[in-house]
Amino acid sequence: MAKLASALVNRLVIIVPYAWLLFFFLIPFFIVFRISLSQTTVAMPPYTPVFDLAGGLAGILEKAREFSVDNYVWLTEDALYFNAYVSSLIIAAISTFLTLLIGYPIAYGMAKAPRAIRPTLLMLVILPFWTSFLIRVYAWIAILKPEGLLNQFLMTIGIIDQPLIILNTNSAIYIGIVYSYLPFMVLPIYSALEKMDHSLIEAAQDLGCTQVSAFWRVTFPLSLPGVVAGCLLVFIPAVGEFVIPDLLGGSETLMIGKTLWNEFNANRDWPVSSAVATVLLLILVIPIVYFQNVQAKADGERG
Amino acid sequence: MMKSLGSIRRSFAPWADPASKPFISVKNVTKKFGDFTAVDDLSLNIYTREFFALLGASGCGKSTLLRMLAGFEQPTSGEIILDGQNLAGIPPYRRPVNMMFQSYALFPHMTVENNIAFGLKQDGMPKPEIAERVAQMLKLVKLEKFAKRKPHQLSGGQRQRVALARSLAKRPKVLLLDEPLGALDKKLREETQFELMDLQQELGLTFVIVTHDQEEAMTMADRIAVMSHGKVVQVATPAEIYEAPNSRFVADFIGDVNLFDGAVTSAEGGSVRIKTTGGIPVRMASSEKLANGARAAIAIRPEKIRISRQAPAHAPVNAAEGEIWDIGYLGDMTVFHVRLKDGKVVKASSLNAVRAVEDPLGYDQQVWISFGEDAGVVLKD
User: Which of A65, A236, B71, B243 is the most exposed place for a label (fewest CB within 10 A)?
Assistant: First the structure.
């Protein structure tokens, strides 16, 4: 009896995450996907067809005929969307790379710090999360604007005599993304580096490596899982980022999150914005699934 | 002919020859970590092709000394000379020594092959030569079939072999081994001990091994340095360490021993007479110069103590009466704990050379323990 109960509990434990995914990911996704196949109309909700159960199964099937892929065709016809996707991917890629360049040394320093102060350092990395993300991005406006703190500081110490124009450019977006997502890069790399056996480095040195070559031949390859996880954690949300380009970016900055927002709110075109969202999801999910398959295969070979 | 201590493994004793030059010379080396002195003004010489063991309890400084030889730690003072070269300031990657780590420290992201080739690639050896050397190393440790495996797909014993092959691949002048067999189970450990000895002979290398396992050190080493609190207490062959310990610490640390404390009654002509605190008059062959009345101790190994039902002819000298307190049957031998009249418990072991004994000794039996005049060592206090 107790055995049966524990088997049941085990089942339940597995069901919980799947139920979560079903209710908060899969069902919302199908709602968005369904809207992306609809047409816009001036009504409430602003698309058609809208199903109601009164028509019975026949009525639903009848209405389902109104579904079309017109919105996806539309996305390919207007270069705006293509450019927005490409530009988002490029901005996200550059930001991810910059985050890695800054995050890796931080994680490395933390992992090499005396054991006693590591929790404090970890705390400092997480600390910014205690302030609202929006407020922190607004704060960057005050820092980066022409008469802002950064320019004042640089002009006071005499490095520049004209204020730098950073705000409302892509540079401001990079700064915003790197700043906001840095902890997501640092934490996985730190955890990969922290559990590494120090005698591996000594073995590498013993076998002829200098400190630098031991890093590149042993430390870095062993921290790759952390690097990959960190890059995904930064890249994925950065592609769809809306707040940072909206607040820090300029009018010429094209990012898919902003385009989506415009379609949804300014144009009130739910079907097209749903199509934009669906395509964005596919762009991100397909490479990740492929990557994880490759990873699983590699693990399988090892295990 | 001179009596020798224990069996002689081979006639290899460069340390006894004043003309031979040491290969590694540790001179007055001290290593401090903050207030803690790990190695304390330590000096010793290691000779070419020697199998040298650093033996001691954990925290005695043996690993620190090994790490100084490898270059992971720098001496606070003193110097280490290897093959005529002062090692001060020379980083690990430029020393002609390699180390086999206690944890093996195999690179988990590389195959067995690549682990072994690691140091060779780092030295920029041409590819065909690397392949040849790796094949040779795999054959040496009998792992040809496992070349493409990753470390986590190997058993503990196999990993140990990979670590050994990797540290030998660069043909170092000296191989440093940090508790190399610590992670293996007893049976495998014993097998591997002999394999390591054969390998060392075959390759003609100098091995320096750190171990806390005295049996391991006794089995493998040409000479053992017994360490305690950062100092070397005795450096000698395993037989000398066992049969002629120079202090109570060494006598007690290596193997089992019975220590009889007492006072010297006379010392002349290579023989010392001592009255133990338990009242046993002991006569022991010894060249120690001792004054009458000086405190001294006699150390006698259990296998050199005889047990008999009747008093031996030389009683009461080198003999005492007692009763059997405990019997430990180990198969190959039996250990008796005999309680003497003053309450002292003496350990005596006897080899079970025959399968069945008529009327064996039992608990609570009254017996005599006795020993010969050359059975023990006189230790000054």
Answer: A65
